[in-house]
Write a sequence for this structure.
């Protein structure tokens, strides 16, 4: 099975940098997703990491260490609209199932 | 390209009733997955359909069922509703159910309230 941990809530100030961590334990690993979900809306895809290292996409970057079972999402130059829940999801590789398992999400609150 | 469409957006039902939720995937996407989202448990996988066949199933009781039609549209049904079934039900589509890098594309969900 899979076990995914991420902080429940974080707060940060507009213009700052915030790092949201995700640790996982899984039998077989085929990649890690990050999704953003605003209240009352659908989760939207942010990034997908398969190999170790940092992937940068504008203000958002995602890092993966497979040996440590660890990932983080880095948000730079925070804006008020970044207030949302951030979901970490692991895609396993076991028994032919590629269905991602989601963490419970980190609620990020950005203050002016 | 239209996104994933779920109907209805909101539903209020009473205990013991049954409910059917609908999902239309992105055109060309053949895999449809269903998730239940609650504040306490987060996103919990219900089942996945691909080419009208259930390919994967989560740990939910048999009261939860689904199907997929030849046009890839999917429905899920919950019978004998319980208060604990109150949740946001999310549908997600992707081009394939095989191991590739395709992310899930989610609909806005159906908010079900059971009273």
């Amino acid at each position: 099975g899979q076990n995914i941990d991420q902080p429940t809530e974080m707060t940060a100030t507009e213009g700052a940098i915030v790092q949201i961590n995700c640790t996982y334990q899984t039998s077989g690993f085929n990649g890690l997703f990050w999704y953003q979900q605003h209240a009352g809306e659908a989760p939207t895809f942010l990034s997908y990491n398969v190999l170790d290292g940092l992937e940068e996409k504008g203000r958002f970057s995602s890092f993966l260490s497979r040996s440590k079972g660890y990932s983080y999402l880095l948000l730079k130059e925070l804006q008020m609209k970044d207030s949302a829940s951030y979901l970490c999801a692991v895609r396993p590789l076991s028994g032919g199932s590629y269905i991602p398992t989601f963490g419970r999400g980190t609620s990020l609150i950005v203050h002016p | 390209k239209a996104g994933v469409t779920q109907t209805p957006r909101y539903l209020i039902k009473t205990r013991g009733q049954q409910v059917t939720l609908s999902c239309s995937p992105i055109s060309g996407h053949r895999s449809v997955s269903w998730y239940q989202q609650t504040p306490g448990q987060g996103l919990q996988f219900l089942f996945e359909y691909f080419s009208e066949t259930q390919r994967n199933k989560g740990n939910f009781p048999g009261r939860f069922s689904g199907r997929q039609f030849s046009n890839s549209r999917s429905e899920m049904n919950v019978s004998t509703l319980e208060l604990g079934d109150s949740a946001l039900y999310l549908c997600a589509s992707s081009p394939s159910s095989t191991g590739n890098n395709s992310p899930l594309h989610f609909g806005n969900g159906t908010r079900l309230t059971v009273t």
Observations:
- Chain B is about 0% helix and 50% strand.
- Chain B has a mean pLDDT of 92.
- Chain B touches chain A at residues 3-4, 33, 35, 41-43, 45, 48, 56, 90, 97-99, 101, 103-109 (CB under 8 Å).
- Residues 38 and 87 of chain B are 5 Å apart (CA to CA).
